[in-house]
Amino acid sequence: GQNIDQPTEMTATEGAIVQINCTYQTSGFNGLFWYQQHAGEAPTFLSYNVLDGLEEKGRFSSFLSRSKGYSYLLLKELQMKDSASYLCAVRDSNYQLIWGAGTKLIIKP
Amino acid sequence: GAVVSQHPSWVICKSGTSVKIECRSLDFQATTMFWYRQFPKQSLMLMATSNEGSKATYEQGVEKDKFLINHASLTLSTLTVTSAHPEDSSFYICSARGRADYEQYFGPGTRLTVT
User: Is the pLDDT of residue A32 over 70?
Assistant: First the structure.
């Protein structure tokens, strides 16, 4: 079966750095996505990785290792508004998005 | 970036009635649209995938006669929840993908409450 694993919840301090990991086992791979979802709202796109390596976009970076079936989302200089759920999703061989359950990130002052 | 709208943003209906949710791609043509459902504190669950001009493909366990999907044009897809029951209360989110884009663009979601 297809499976995406990420921690259920993480806590970090304002101004700090946090890394959210995601491991996956899917039938085929056509890219990995990270989305941010605030409570009661729809997900918003953060990043897309299809090749191995690090993609940096401002305070957010995403890393992919296809051989290990592993990705992480790195958030720097954390702000209170970063408190949200972070969803990892992998597009499989049928171009369907397989979703992780999401990681709830709690930022403390 | 591409914008997807949903209407209504929230709706309350009585048990047994039907509710229609619209999903529109405002500035691009969406060859494929996806309908998701999300219960509180749970991840997105794909209900169905629809391609313009053809029948929707439903995920296992989703009743096609209860959740009617119509993708009549490249900018509009509708989800009709027929004979809604309280257990259908959920957050329904659509997303759209264009011909050339690798990304899915999400609508703001519709919160359905069935009393």
Answer: yes
